[in-house]
Specification:
It is built from two helices and ten strands, in the order E-E-E-E-E-E-H-E-E-E-H-E. The protein is mainly beta and about 120 residues long. The protein has one domain: Roll (Structural Genomics Hypothetical 15.5 Kd Protein In mrcA-pckA Intergenic Region, Chain A). The strands form three sheets. It has a six-stranded mixed β-sheet with strand order 5-4-10-9-8-6. It is elongated, with a radius of gyration of 19 Å.
Length: about 120
């Protein structure tokens, strides 16, 4: 189980004895790696009684064109991703990824694992 609590080891390598066990407010989770595919969403409860919608898979992006209009297009594949070169092979979409669409190449501006949707801006080529 992931935790955002204090580490049990010191910088020097010495052992730090815990004052308490893991608490719910220290909970962490692994990142949601949104893949290109049929739309699949997951609702996650967060602190304060609110909810996050995570995109597990999505193949549709809302792309902003240069003239101030937005178009809903289908994502063909991921062509570049500065976050991790392995994400390109696995077709994982993150913020900053460059995706191929019928309109052209577009850079993702939203965080699909946090927002549940993919927004992008068309690149000038």
């Amino acid at each position: 189980m992931k935790s955002h609590g204090r580490s049990t080891t010191k910088r020097t390598g010495g052992r730090r004895r815990p004052n308490h066990k893991k608490r719910k407010h220290e909970l962490g989770s692994s990142p949601t790696e949104t893949r290109v595919g049929d739309r699949k969403l997951k609702v996650v409860e967060t602190r304060g009684g609110t909810q996050k919608i995570r995109a597990i898979q999505n193949d549709v992006a809302t792309v902003a064109t240069g003239d101030g209009e937005t178009v809903s297009v289908e994502i063909e594949n991921v062509s570049e991703n500065e976050a991790n070169p392995n994400y390109v092979r696995r077709n994982i979409v993150t913020k900053g990824a460059i995706v191929d669409t019928p309109e052209g190449r577009a850079r993702v501006t939203s965080r699909p694992g946090q927002d549940g949707q993919i927004n992008a801006v068309l690149l000038d080529e």
